[in-house]
Amino acid sequence: MHRTIGVVGGMGPWATLDFFEKVLRATPARRDQEHLRLIIDNNPKIPDRGPAILGDGEDPTPALVATARNVEAAGADLIVIPCNTAHHFYQAIQAAVRVPVLHIMREVAGAASRRFTRLGRVGLLATRATVATGLYQDAFRLLGAEVVVPDERGQEVIDRLIYAIKAQGVDDALRSAGVAEGRGLNRAGAEAIILGCTELPLVLGEDTLGLPILDSNLILAEVAVGLATSAEPLPAPVRV
Amino acid sequence: MHRTIGVVGGMGPWATLDFFEKVLRATPARRDQEHLRLIIDNNPKIPDRGPAILGDGEDPTPALVATARNVEAAGADLIVIPCNTAHHFYQAIQAAVRVPVLHIMREVAGAASRRFTRLGRVGLLATRATVATGLYQDAFRLLGAEVVVPDERGQEVIDRLIYAIKAQGVDDALRSAGVAEGRGLNRAGAEAIILGCTELPLVLGEDTLGLPILDSNLILAEVAVGLATSAEPLPAPVRV
To answer: For FRET with B209, which of A59, A150, B27, B71 sits at 20 to 30 Å CA-CA?
Structure first.
């Protein structure tokens, strides 16, 4: 008996689509009925997370909480949020529902610890707001790994790239500039790169970057499929 | 103010993913918040529609009705079912909810009447069960168009192709056999081909078939986006 995955989605919608595809690819299935049930609330009307965190935007917490409650009411046994920046509001979301909400930074750190026996430095490509929250820095500190991030000019490139993906307007020059930032982190000692924004795997990969990546959207999908197909009890919601 | 699109999905999940992508592509948006809210219940546990129609399978009506009610309760203003064969159960689904449920055959016929000034013969590639229901034949008769379908051996090829798409196991030979069936319908007088199964656009297109196609999944997505972004009243549910 499979569990149903609830998706607090739409942040952005292309990243939710990519998450859905990664769930399908990660599911061992030869026919419809062997696939997993997902309740996806693709709610792009949720206010932008970045400005809210950086100081001057509408608070997305009420919309995030309402969307999580909506997928729970529709039958979700566990919830994922395929948007890294939204995890700044994780505690309020988890507190609002009875089912466990996966935490993307913890899952990425968990995947990193399984994949690398020792990780000294890891690069982070993410929104300025995600970098500012320190959530990846905290999660990887527990592994003894240091997170390195682009400089001010580089962060501007990454933010521009992320918003261009949302607008379906990425050109070769911008993509190349994003690749250059990843390689720059590698020269600064990063042995792997966290794609810590669910838009970034749509344009960056191990083939383009030429070094190991931790794709936060893929990791979240694989963990969700593992839990949904497992006969083990789900982890209890983390209350803080 | 946009309307929310409810999706009775999972039949199959790859077709639901394709529908989602077609909605995103059809939506004029430069940022997350300009995109549409969708409530997708990707419920691949719904029993297979084909065997139920052809005589020896579990009735999917209760699961279809429950899934439609679920997306309505979660906030859908209109409902789509990106599975042609499921439309055999359309009346029961529409009767179970207050919001309008689009009817894919009527929408494909409507798109055909806008695209072709006169259509004498149209080919239908669909599941054996969809062909047997006569739903496309009825919808196109209203346009004065005759629907032509593959012969027994050809229908076996198309059914095999559809189930292979669900299993992500299409090889070149099977794809070529599907293309040959479409071209055979063209030689039998079809001026266009209805891809009357939402799995088929994943492997067949105008480029491969070399003749005009009516992609039922794309048409459903475009109509849904048009209604969701329109300021006009929605069409009333069709009660029969």
So the answer is: B27
Please give the structure tokens belonging to residue B78. Answer: 């209109």
pLDDT at A240 over 70: no
Minimal C-alpha gap between B129 and chain A (Å): 16
* Residues A93, A95, A97, A103, Cα dihedral to 10°: 50
State if pTM tops 0.95. yes
Q: Is B37–A41 a contact, with Cβ atoms under 8 angstroms apart?
A: yes
d(CA B24, CA A106): 30
In angstroms, the first-to-last Cα distance of chain B is: 31
- As a whole number of angstroms, the distance between CA B41 and CA A5 comes to 10
Is residue B66 annotated as part of the catalytic site, yes or no?
Answer: no
Task: Give A214's strand partners.
Answer: A194
Q: Which residues in chain A are contacts of B71 at CB distance < 8 A?
A: 74
User: pLDDT by residue (tens digit) across B56-71?
Assistant: 899 999 999 999 999 9
Contacts of B32 (CB under 8 A, 6+ apart): A10, A11, A12, A13, A44, A46, A48, A166
Tokens 């029969």 correspond to what residue?
Answer: B240
Residues of chain A in contact with residue B38, where contact means CB-CB under 8 angstroms, are 40, 42
Whether chain A has a CB inside 8 Å of the CB on B66: the answer is no
| Of A14, A33, A167, Cβ closest to residue B45 | A33
ipTM given for this complex: 0.97
Separation between Cα atoms, residue B221 and residue B240, nearest integer Å: 24
